[in-house]
Design brief:
GO terms for molecular function: ATP binding; tubulin binding; tubulin-glutamic acid ligase activity. Residues 671-698 have a biased composition (Low complexity). This is Tubulin polyglutamylase TTLL11. Keywords: ATP-binding, Ligase, Nucleotide-binding. There is one protein chain. A hairpin with a 2-residue loop joins strand 9 and strand 10. Helix content is 38%, strand content 13%. The radius of gyration is 28 Å and the shape is globular. By secondary structure, it is α+β, with helices and mostly antiparallel strands. Helix 14 crosses helix 15 (566-575), helix 14 crosses helix 17 and helix 19 (652-682) packs antiparallel against helix 20. The strands form 4 sheets. Strands 9, 10, 11, 12, 13, 15, 16 and 19 form an 8-stranded antiparallel β-sheet that branches. Strands 2-1-3-4-14 form a 5-stranded parallel β-sheet, covered by helices on one side. Bound molecules: adenosine-5'-diphosphate. Residues 2, 208, 239, 241, 245-249, 251, 274, 276-277, 289, 334-336, 420, 422, 432-433 line the site of adenosine-5'-diphosphate. Adenosine-5'-diphosphate binds at residues 2, 208, 239, 241, 245-249, 251, 274, 276-277, 289, 334-336, 420, 422, 432-433.
């Protein structure tokens, strides 16, 4: 994943597909500026023509945050001449502007008129590259935009990059979750999915086998260096992706561990190495991937929506299975728009079903015409999306609580994610990555004369993206929960246990234009379909890590904290009564030190010595394995969760106090140990007085000094088996 836009910048056409997928064809209209990506050196061999083009692009390109200058005809059409033109901005519930006294009299006389809702207000001052599509969406909804921000608070804040684009928001809703960027970095996403693979190998086999290098180099070599005559494995290819990279930057293919290009010393960067999907589904002999937009409407309760329409991005060189000669052919193996647009073969088409970027529905239509069961494909894609979000949620909750602790005024959050999915030859969807900031640009750069590049509208992007933004806004409308508010179609929670096939609406019929269905407010029906909690029943059993995170959060205690100190960890063990003769507290301490130290070492930029959620999950798995006779990790973990939850039930009040106390103890312990460290660096006498202090301290202080010892031994890497019980 990337914390940057992914560079979708192409166009397509207006060929409708008869399908509910196609029904997303809202009256979107409009064009947007795409962030001009600076010219980059493609990671693999790029033909000279492409390089020339890239230079041209660089010369005419604009900065990341540039507001688009070229106005597309469709943008003028919609923003100015659409349904909102010439009308006051309201939410469509007119009240006629009667003075308050008259309205009060009306109410007294029993002539209560429906109150006009004030227009929903949207702060777009930090929207960056999604601005153009956002403006169109707001205009279609007849909401009120504040392009320069607003002194009073707005209902919705649209951030271009991160939750922290504006740290002063205390109410309303922000379109980014804290921590999403971090969670979707390639390494963190791989870790979260691998944890789920450990628990549910079958359910999570949609994510290719991955290793995080350099720390897992040994495992990578051992698992892949199999004698060639043993069959199969020697044929594997791997794709190497730098952590935090995007748009194909720095990606290359290898066939042997020895071909890795790992920098050392200060240049050392972490990478994810992943098994390469060698047999992707091809269309017109070309590899392609699918970009699907997914709305996480809330974390608690978890609500997920999937856009019924997506994009497909095509390679520009016919695909061959990897061999030593073609490994470096970027236009054959990587589907990134930002790379392929530099190829002389890139086709900017006005059609949605031809060219190098097409709608997903046009591809499904084509597959359906060849007899493919596209309902099944859709159903598998939806499963993949729900399972992936379930894997992300636990850590996101930790970030959320740290940034917006319960009781502290703050906004609520939602976020549109970009899922990149590959279909294998056997039509199995494979997750490539999830983008926290999928590009929402609706125009692309085109060479209008040799060496001269301009932004022109991209119908395909506009078709898909404006609907996604507009319908996200509709779902986030703060008036939604008011009595009498019309729920847009598709937004309802829906029954449980529904068959996933029900969601699949792409029909294999003719691609003729279908009449757009409209909702009561004159808008097209929603292009976003709720899939969770709608399908909670099928997926709820996967939420084991989420339950572990709930325990973790209970013991964090202190606001703004994301890591568990040693005392809080002990408190968790004590409250859940996990310590016994087989697991004395000394072993608990050793477990804490051991795991925390390993996790600190695997995150080079972190000097944090306390326990993050992932480390806690590892400790939990370890404890579960010690207690259970089952050979299945998921059973071990479930039964330990039940034990913990049973013990904690009814202790809630006491627990909060304990957690807060142990957390502040952990904090004191840290500041105390810092103070001691400072003191000890000054004079020997001050260090001896600190030692004397620690001898004189209360039980709580003794726990603190115990923590100091733990932390010190942790920092210095010395495992101490004699820590107090
Ligand atoms: P980036 O964030 O740099 O775009 P991705 O993980 O999306 O990185 O990979 C870039 C491209 O490489 C993808 O769009 C896809 O075409 C190809 N790719 C990535 N992972 C795999 C894989 N495991 N198997 C086959 N192709 C892959």
């Amino acid at each position: 994943m990337s914390d940057r836009d992914d560079g979708d910048r192409n166009g397509g056409d207006g060929n409708d597909v008869e399908a509910e997928l196609g029904r997303t064809k809202a009256s979107s209209g409009g064009a947007a500026a795409e962030r001009a990506t600076p010219p980059r050196t493609p990671p693999l061999t790029t033909p000279p023509a492409a390089k020339t083009k890239a230079r041209g692009r660089g010369e005419t390109g604009r900065g990341d945050d540039a507001v688009p200058s070229p106005k597309s005809p469709s943008r003028r059409r919609d923003a100015g001449g659409g349904p909102a033109a010439g009308k006051p901005q309201t939410n469509g519930h007119a009240d006629g502007g009667r003075p308050a006294a008259h309205r009060a009299k009306d109410r007294r006389d029993g002539h209560a008129r429906p109150r006009r809702r004030r227009p929903v207000t949207v702060d777009t001052s930090r929207a960056k590259t999604s601005l153009e599509a956002l403006k169109l969406s707001i205009a279609q909804l007849r909401w009120k935009e504040f392009p320069l921000g607003r002194r009073a608070s707005c209902d919705i804040y649209w951030h271009g990059v991160s939750f922290h684009d504006n740290d002063h928001i205390v109410s309303g809703q922000v379109n980014k979750f804290p921590g999403m960027i971090e969670m979707l970095r390639k390494i963190n996403l791989s870790r979260a999915l691998r944890t789920m693979q450990e628990l549910f190998p079958e359910e999570y086999n949609f994510y290719p086998r991955s290793w995080i290098l350099p720390e897992e180099y040994q495992q990578f070599s051992a698992q892949t260096r199999v004698p060639k005559d043993s069959g199969g494995v020697a044929n594997l290819t791997f794709i190497v992706k730098p952590d935090g990279g995007s748009q194909g930057d720095g990606i290359y293919l290898i066939r042997e561990p020895g071909e890795l290009r790992l920098a050392t010393g200060s240049q050392a960067k972490q990478v994810v190495v992943q098994e390469y999907v060698q047999r992707p589904l091809l269309i017109d002999k070309l590899k392609f991937d699918i970009r699907l937009y997914v709305l996480v409407k809330s974390l608690e309760p978890l609500q997920i929506y999937i856009a019924k329409e997506g994009l497909t991005r095509f390679c520009t060189e016919p695909y061959q299975e990897p061999n030593q000669k073609n490994l470096s052919h970027v236009f054959m193996h990587l589907t990134n728009y930002s790379l392929n647009v530099q190829s002389g073969n890139f086709v900017h088409s006005d059609s949605q079903s031809t060219g190098s970027k097409r709608t997903f529905s046009s591809v499904l239509y084509r597959l359906a015409s060849k007899g493919v069961d596209i309902k099944k494909v859709w159903s598998d894609v939806i499963s993949l999306v729900i399972k992936t979000v379930i894997a992300l949620v636990p850590e996101l909750k930790v970030h959320y609580q740290a940034d917006i602790p319960p009781g502290k005024p703050g906004p609520t959050c939602f976020q549109i994610l970009g899922f990149d999915i590959l279909l294998t030859k056997n039509l199995k969807p494979v997750l490539l990555e999830v983008n926290s900031n999928p590009s929402m640009r609706i125009e692309h750069e085109q060479e209008v004369a040799p060496g001269v590049f301009e932004y022109v509208p991209s119908p395909v992007d506009e078709e898909v993206k404006v609907c996604v933004i507009r319908d996200t806004l509709r779902l986030m409308d703060p008036g939604q929960n008011r009595p009498g508010h019309h729920q847009p179609e598709g937004s309802s929670g829906g029954g449980s246990g529904a068959d996933q096939g029900e969601v699949i609406t792409a029909k294999a019929g003719s691609p003729e234009k279908v009449k757009e269905e409209e909702t009561a407010d004159g808008l097209p029906s929603l292009c976003l379909k709720q899939v969770y909690p709608k399908y909670t029943k099928q997926f709820h059993y996967l939420c084991l890590v989420d339950r572990i995170a709930t325990l973790f959060l209970r013991f964090l205690g202190i606001k703004g904290n994301m890591r568990l100190g040693p005392t809080a960890f002990r408190t968790f063990i004590r409250c859940c009564r996990l310590s016994n003769s087989a697991l004395p507290m000394a072993s608990v301490d050793i477990l804490y030190i051991d795991i925390t130290r390993r996790w600190a070492a695997s995150t080079p930029d972190s000097r944090e010595a306390r326990m993050g959620l992932q480390a806690f999950v590892e400790a939990f798995f370890n404890l579960a394995g010690r207690r259970s006779k089952s050979s299945l990790l998921r059973d071990q973990v479930s039964s330990l969760l039940e034990v913990c939850e049973a013990h904690l039930e009814g202790q809630a009040g006491a627990l909060l106090t304990t957690a807060a106390a142990s957390s502040s103890e952990d904090r004191r312990s840290l500041s105390c140990s810092r103070a001691m460290a400072r003191g000890s660096s000054k004079t020997p006498s001050s260090s001896s007085s600190a030692a004397a202090n620690s001898r004189l301290c209360s039980p709580a202080r003794r726990a603190t000094s115990h923590d100091q010892r733990l932390q010190r031994s942790n920092r210095h890497g010395a495992l101490r088996a004699h820590v107090e019980n």
